[in-house]
Amino acid sequence: MAKAGMYVGLDIGTTSIKVVVAEYIDSQMNIIGVGNAKSEGINRGIIVDIDKTVQAIQRAVKQAEEKAGIQIKSVSVGLPANLLEVETCQGMIAVNNESKEIMDDDVRNVASAAMVRSVPPERQIVALLPQEFTVDGFEGIKDPRGMIGVRLEMFGLVFTGPKTIIHNITKCVEKAGLSVAETVITSQALTESILSDGEKDFGTIVIDMGGGQTTTAVMHDKQLKFTHVDQEGGEFVTKDISIVLNTSFNNAEALKINYGDAYPSRTSSDEDFPVDVIGKTEPVKVDERYLAEIIEARLEQIFRKAKESLDEIEALDLPGGVVLTGGAASLPGVVDLAEDIFGTTVKLHVPNQMGLRNPVFTNVISIVNYSAELSDVYHLAKSAVTGEKVSLSTSAVSTAPVYDDYEASNDYEEEIKPKNEEKVSGKIKDFFSNIFD
Prior knowledge:
The protein is of the alpha+beta class.
């Protein structure tokens, strides 16, 4: 259940940067502000120029602020799935409380025990997701707090990613004058937000077709099991049109939007349109079928690469089929082409929020929704990763930009500063000492 309050999501994409301000009342999402600015300084989903990216973020944030009538100070930002690795983890501790009642600190400590692992220097832990707890052998517990026990175990998932990507995203957000309330793995947020409970349980593939890259994610047993990133997206379709027809990139983008179709058999070679060709004084006539064949060639290549990765893990046998989303997926004929290549059921996901009914906004809406629904247990486990001891009474402020009279409060930061000095390594030593004693 989503917490009440206000949340801001930031999606840094290759083509555009999106910001969404959402207010939750009685667990109902109400979007009150949207910003959408053209991306600069980003190539194939990766930040290559920090200053240009910062300026683009500021433009998108300003738009959202003007529409929502608030000042944005912190955001939940999405992280791409580039080189993302998912591993299982397990931790066990002796309950330290004399009454043997499991408290917040016990959840933090068992999460810390699960984090005892070696991480390569070029990678860092992005997130720790508790899956279930076991108290004195009783399994399947989602939140053990308040229970009585002497032994507490946690089973979860650890996500690690390249330090460079994570650092650059965080740096850009901070240079834009914002604080990072939450870092969210976009593929995790996407699969959690747009799939039904049955699709998450029985297994479904989600393909996010962005401008600079295409991300394939597999959800099964309500867990993100697999991700694959192909450094090709909708911009490559536009570049192909530009090169083949010898026209400018902007003209090619307009042709794709106005006349494009990914399934040539749906088009006619008798229907044509004028194209401004470089080096010619008069426009050249091009028919719909020829344009569709150009588009089909690139999209087929993208889908076949995704299929190769999915075939390796036999994911296409999952009953949920394939769900397409992202800006490039909105092109007519994409679903038909995908069904031919994947040989399974394919459907297009379109957000249902008023004014945002376009797949290009799926990621940023998912980031906001996922952040709002993060549990207290998640935040306790997160504190084991970050080393910050979070007060759950004010967790809404820490995990999302919640405003009092539309202004962020600084009381929370003052409250947790003295607690930040406690290190995870110290916790681990203390609790292993308790176990062996």
